[in-house]
Design brief:
The structure is a homodimer of 209-residue chains. Chain A is globular, with a radius of gyration of 17 Å. In chain A, strands 2-1-3-4 form a 4-stranded mixed β-sheet. In chain A, α1 runs antiparallel to α6. The first copy, chain A, is mainly α and 209 residues long. The first copy, chain A, contains 7 helices and 4 strands; from the N terminus they run βαβαββααααα. Chain A folds into 2 domains: 75 residues, Glutaredoxin (3-Layer(aba) Sandwich), CATH 3.40.30.10; 122 residues, Glutathione S-transferase Yfyf (Class Pi), Chain A, domain 2, CATH 1.20.1050.10. Chain A starts with a strand and ends in a 7-residue tail after the last helix. The longest helix of chain A has 27 residues. The mean pLDDT of chain A is 97. At the A-B interface, α3, α4 and α5 of A face α3, α4 and α5 of B.
């Protein structure tokens, strides 16, 4: 396998953390997004959607979404379950991970991409050009703030997001909070549950990657 | 189990079709979205996010996203696999299903919810009020058109979206095309692969539900 990564981007970082938590070592190919390497002929041939992360399997099959890559690795290496060890856990973790991605991670991304000059004509992830919509800067930020409020309440009676054990939902939420700094958004200091949880996740080896 | 459904809404229809393809019979509770039943005290207690679908398990646990519900049912009833029978299939199907949801289903929803008078202050799914952003009507539609073009090309050499077998990716894409009619968007007549595939899916018993 080969993992196409970019050290500075939030989406591949989710997969990087997932791989580390699984205890896997997968050869990494760094993609230089800052210099638009994702638009190069070689990369477009690998992934026409022009995004990272990409996982290339030994038979040449490519998976090019965080969802597909993590589901594949979970099925191959179930020994350290990150998407649930039984049906109920799988349902609950998938439920939470979807919500965190939609309401947290993608909301931050919406605010960021519709403002940053670097994404003037690429306000939507992928190969198609879309102009920025300035109103989304504030709407994405407001949604991210609502997400943080929900997460703080959700963590009032849970050590980890899905309950007693660390899961992919913790990864997605942790990286959402890190990504939120790109839009200068920090959780309010009185979100005590959220800060307690964040400190615990940040102390894990996988969080430093 | 109980499945909280709404006969007219596209999101619960994805789960309805998934349940039918699995050959399961789960008692249904119809939620009257047109009369705002999702905002009732009883429903908010069940699902504070005020959305359908919801699957209530026999122990009272609730799953309230399509992702969580389908992952749960797949793990409980793997006999008819809809998210892949081995790791590679699981990865590929999850990859495609994520893309179809993001670039197809949610793009149509974005166009629809930012225009319809019924969603004037609820342009984003969920319990929080967000004003409509008129520019998203066109951007969502443009993204849905790009999605249809991609899907037509993708289906050139595949009977079903993930290859030889029917999967959840076919469900999400089929309901996306049905939903697209809400914004008066039909695939161009010369998208022959797409129309061939659509006719096959539409002929399944589960598509009539």
């Amino acid at each position: 396998m080969k993992f196409y990564d970019c050290a500075t981007a939030p989406s591949p970082r989710r997969v990087r953390m997932f791989i580390a938590e699984k205890g896997l070592v997968i050869p990494v190919v760094e993609v230089d997004l800052a210099n638009r390497e994702q638009h190069s002929d070689a990369f477009v041939k690998l992934n026409p959607h022009r995004t990272v992360p990409v996982l290339e399997l030994d038979d040449g099959t490519t998976l090019n979404t965080t969802s597909g890559i993590c589901q594949y690795l979970e099925a191959c290496f179930p020994q350290v379950p990150l998407i649930g060890a039984d049906p109920k856990e799988r349902g609950l973790i998938s439920d939470l991970d979807w919500r965190i991605e939609q309401e947290g991670f993608l909301a931050v991304g919406e605010s960021f991409r519709n403002r940053s000059k670097a994404f003037k004509n690429n306000a939507v992830t992928g190969q198609h050009e879309h102009s920025q919509i300035p109103e989304l800067v504030d709407r994405g930020r407001a949604r991210a703030e609502q997400f943080m409020q929900w997460l703080n309440e959700h963590l009032a009676q849970r050590e980890y997001i899905a309950g007693d054990g660390f899961s992919i939902a913790d990864i997605t939420a942790f990286i959402t909070l890190e990504f939120a700094r790109w839009i200068k958004l920090e959780p309010p200091t009185d979100y005590e549950n959220l800060h307690r949880w964040y400190s615990e996740i940040a102390a894990r080896d996988s969080a430093a990657l």
